[in-house]
Amino acid sequence: MFKHLREEIDGIMARDPAARSRLEVALCYPGLHAIVLHRVARRARDAGWHLAARLVSQVARSLTGIEIHPGATIGRRFFIDHGMGVVIGETAEIGDDVMLYHGVTLGGTSLNPGKRHPTLGDGVIVGAGAKILGAITIGRGARIGANAVVVADVAADTAVVGIPAKPVVPRDRAETRKFLPYGTPCGDIPDPVARALSGLLDQVTALQARVGELEGEPSGRRGAAPTPDRPPHLPHIETETMPARNGGLHEAQGETR
Ligand SMILES: CC(C)(COP(=O)(O)OP(=O)(O)OC[C@H]1O[C@@H](n2cnc3c(N)ncnc32)[C@H](O)[C@@H]1OP(=O)(O)O)[C@@H](O)C(=O)NCCC(=O)NCCS
Question: In this structure, are residues 57 and 38 in contact, taking their beta carbons and an 8 Å threshold?
Answer without folding.
Answer: yes
